[in-house]
Amino acid sequence: MVPISHAIALSALLFCIGAAGALARRNLIVILMSIELMLNAVNLALVAFSRQWGDIAGHVFVLMVIVVAAAEVTVGLGIVISLFRNRESVNVEDASLLRW
Amino acid sequence: MIEVIVKMLFIVLVMMGAFLPLITWVERKQAAIMQDRIGANRADLFGIRAIGLLHPAADVLKLLTKEDVVPRGANRVLHLLAPVMALVPAIITLAVIPFGSVYAFGESALNLVVADIDWGMLYVFAVGSLATYGAVIAGWASNNNWSLLGSMRASSQMISYEVTMGLALVGLFMVFGSLKLTEIAAAQDTTFRLLGFLELFGVVAALPAWLDWIRLPAWGVFYQPLGFILFLTCIMAENKRPPFDAPEGESEIIAGYHMEYSGMRFGLFYTAEFLEVPVIGALVATLFLGGWAVPFLSQETIIGGVSQAFGVGFATGLCMILHVVTFLVKVVVLIWLQMLIRWTLPRFRYDQVMDLCWKYILPLSIANVFVTGGAILLAEGLR
Amino acid sequence: MSALLFYVFGALAVGGALGMVLNVRNTVAGAMSLVLAMVSLGGVYVLLDAYLIGVLQILVYAGAIVVLFLFVVMLLNLRGEQFGPERLAVGKVLGVAVAVLLLLQLLWLIPTFAPPAELRPGFGGYRDVGMALFTDWVLAFESTSLLLLAAMIGAVVLAKRKVD
Q: What is the CATH topology of the domain spanning C1-81?
């Protein structure tokens, strides 16, 4: 069995890939998928720590995160559909009303 | 390790090698008999026709030699990935289905299941949910509006029926107290007194002895009849089996997401669809029809009875063969039932399919959970 | 053996994540890379003795959430040519730089742990998590059902066509 710090490192790597995706991409659907990736990285960290200390509360927390992610994806994609109906594009730059 | 490989080979040879061609033949012949015609019987080998049993081989040869067409503008990688993603979940569901129980040969115990995991049914649900991708990606990767329409119908139908498939089984899990398929099959190896519920609910103190021999095998279908009907409906709809095949409605959207697939790519979809028939049969047989258990003859009775004449080793081997044959007979009965349903009912309209799931099956399965829970609590409380 | 499997699944997860983030033109291929990442993470969870969470990850994330993404992409018929060109802007480079900086900080902060605790039998299985969920954490469980109800209502209201 690998040391837990390797699992935490994997979680950090996935989180930062997700963060880079959410910050750098302009396609709204890819941004939502990157947020899902970040939530998954957090789940991995929680599971790793739960294994380290033998505490089942980590798993319960992961279940809550999964449910929250599902709810967020549902509503987020509803927003994407409404946005697409109004502006014919899922590029976030087309949805920006700020001047600069 | 070698044991696992041998078991996997057995499953692949029996299920894919023997059942799959047989089901292609049964589909045509049973349809023909039900429709009062002869069916396909022209394929012959050196003049021997064998009532059409050579047609599956002819089908495979035809599919292998047809041209592999990828439509222009389609994504080649996704176009190839889709049939693979449809086929793999159907095959790996067989890894947790027990073909027999645990047999003691000397010191070693032989368990006739490839993977005896603690959460077996959750694995089946998870793998079944991955099967959605085959239909979804196929429609998108074909660059075709009809395929896209079939694909959208398929994806919403499949994810709706996954939910009710799980809920319909919750009553069964409450009754048997486990998600492990080997435990559920082993718990159905016994019989129960049909009128025992009078004793449980306190109507009589103890059942008179002459009523004790009215027994039924402790199968899931007798404990959960509504759950059986709901689960059979849901799993047939999940696998897009007619009459739920609106996604590939042949007269409406010209084969839906199958349309741009020819040759062996279509052969993979074809294999996936026909492999799901015995997989559904095996799953329903294990959960509701007692799996490998012979009705009214438990494993101890068989081994005890035969070993008095022939010795324990031979008795265990005979029992193993008997159990596997019983399981396969039950799978064959369920295949026949699915073919019967397919060729009797006309295709449901797509909105009828979705209505059935969310407005009828979902409330019924939740009611089933409540009634089962109430019955278990009442029986436990009054015991 | 399980250590080797952990590294294989980890590499697949990172590969899938990169495939999703770096895929500029084809959103559906990016979503399939995300599925690969999630299934690999499910494998990692099973290796970390989190059996229920691992199978729920595949059931919920890979089997429903990403299908929802694909469904929306197909519903809006977002073909590759429709996305605006993603230019190499200053904001992009800055975003990636911030993420790399965050990664370096996080990796620097990871301590060395004591050997993991001895697990009770049945840890991480459905009975264990189920007992904890329905006894200690039942309030959180019930509030998630309210959250899901709110999400369902929100999604229906947002995506409904306005019939005048």
A: Four Helix Bundle (Hemerythrin (Met), subunit A) (1.20.120)
